[in-house]
Amino acid sequence: MVSNTKDYVILNFIIPLVQAYFFVSLLSSRTISNLENGNIFFNNIIFSQFSQLITHTSHSIAREREIHTLRDLFLSKRGIFSVFSLKMLLHVIVTTGTTVLFLLISCLLDRSTSLLSVLFIIATILFSNVFISLFSLFWGIIGLHFKNILLILNTYLVIQLLLSGINVPFDKLPGILVIISNFLPLTYLIEAINVGEFSYNWFVALGKLATCCILYFIVGIFLLKKISNRILYLE
Known about the structure:
The protein is an all-alpha fold. Helix content is 75%, strand content 0%.
């Protein structure tokens, strides 16, 4: 089992540093006008943010740590916030702050990037963290109750991911499953291999999971277009 110190160092500093470097490279190769179709947001920013939190959640599932529901988050008998909830909140705050800090430092050193582009990236990082915090909590809850079917789901979606490629243009996606596959990193499949026999009601769990995923992504698509159109209008 990986120590807590190593977990926190990797999740809160190493991953944000890699993400910040990725964002700076992205800004240096693209202009703000390329953001209108949402490709950067969906296929790069959200994917990297999902990778860190789903990896964190999958470790909790694999090691059978306690993951609270949203009800327990606010109505825990041990207080308003549970220990796990506070740890997750702290993780999101530290990771977001570290990523933004690295991003700002890198952009200050590279004067070729515009302030508007930097603000757009920071805004999408903050939005995606709120978005995926709820999603990863939901994912962990599903995993605790139906983790035997995650191997089926993840295997299929990872195959979809490998066939479609991470950077499929948003307006040419063949279906909602390809969108979902873009949010599931290979690390989660590795964790899911640890499961045992398949559950008898796997199709019920799969249906609930797919429905919630679609609802989350529809809301995310709507908010993305509003944000990107507003920024392009202000420019």
